Amino acid sequence: LQQSSAEMNLDMMSIDEGLGSPDEHSRNQAVRVLQEMAEGSRLIGIISHVSELKQEIEDQLLVNKDENGSHVKWQIS
What is the overall mean pLDDT for the chain? Predict the structure, then answer.
C-alpha cells in the first residue's frame, strides 16, 4: 500500500482480528513483517484473541473483563 503512493505515510496501523484465520506459516510471516514495520517510529496495533500471537508480540496492552468491569495494563518486555 505505501509503495503504491509516494504521498502516503503510515505512522500507525491497527489490525482487528486480522491474524486469526491464516495458517501458522502465514501468520508468522505477517507478524514478522509487522515487527519490521514497527522497528522505526511506527505504531502497530493488533487486536486479537489468538493465544499464539501473545507469544510473538513483545509489548502488549492487555484488556481483561471481570464482574467489576474492564481493566487494562501494559505488559512491556
Answer: 79
